[in-house]
Amino acid sequence: MITPADETLLRRAIGIAARAVALGDAPYGSLLAGPDGTVLAEAHNTVRRDDDITAHPELKLARWAARALDPGTAARTTLYTSCQPCGMCAGGIVRSGIGRVVYALSTAQLVELNPPSGHWPTVTQSGPHLFEEARTPIDAYYGPN
């Protein structure tokens, strides 16, 4: 459930996405609001412009929050975004300490609107391997368990 204030800020994120298109960028926009609803930062997708596959607005704001906010403040912020964060962005949001995400379109809805989006090839993963060797730098940093 979202509040009227959430709806206002979510509409602003959608507006950022619309401005991104007007600038020639991909149609994704986000903003980070503080505990009182004040907009702290805004961003839009600049993947093509920056030639940077990580230039999603959600990840940009997660990075900003991790650098600029103390953990207690970050935990009380809300990220408003025009589309559901992808896996890369979701990981960054968790690591940044942002407390809440409100999005307009789900990934499934986005794929319905733009079928090629969200269809990435599966990457084969193999592991875990070499536990004793791999633990050495971890133990050196954090101390042995």
Keywords, separated by commas or semicolons:
single chain; 145 residues; alpha+beta; 7 helices; 4 strands
Question: Care to describe what's here?
Answer:
By secondary structure, the chain is α+β, with helices and mostly antiparallel strands. It is 48% helix and 16% strand. The protein has 7 helices and 4 strands. It has helices spanning 4-22, 47-50, 57-68, 71-75, 87-96, 107-113, 131-142; strands at 29-33, 39-44, 78-83, 100-105. It has a 4-stranded mixed β-sheet with strand order 2-1-3-4, with helices on both faces. Helix 3 (57-68) runs parallel beside helix 5 (87-96). The radius of gyration is 18 Å and the shape is globular. The termini are far apart. The model has no long low-confidence stretch (mean pLDDT 94).
Outline the fold blueprint.
Elements: H1 4-22, E1 29-33, E2 39-44, H2 47-50, H3 57-68, H4 71-75, E3 78-83, H5 87-96, E4 100-105, H6 107-113, H7 131-142
Parallel strand pairs: 3-4
Antiparallel strand pairs: 1-2, 1-3
Helix pairs in contact: 3-5
Short description:
The protein is of the alpha+beta class.
Major β-sheet strand ordering: 2-1-3-4
Oligomer: single chain
Secondary-structure-based class equals alpha+beta
- N to C succession of SSEs: HEEHHHEHEHH
Q: Main sheet?
A: 4 strands, mixed
The number of strands is: 4
N/C terminus separation:
42 Å
Shape: globular
What count of helical segments does DSSP give?
7
Low-pLDDT runs of 5+ residues are none
Radius of gyration, in Å, reads 18 Å
Range of helix content: 40-55%
Strand content: 15-25%
Mean pLDDT: 94
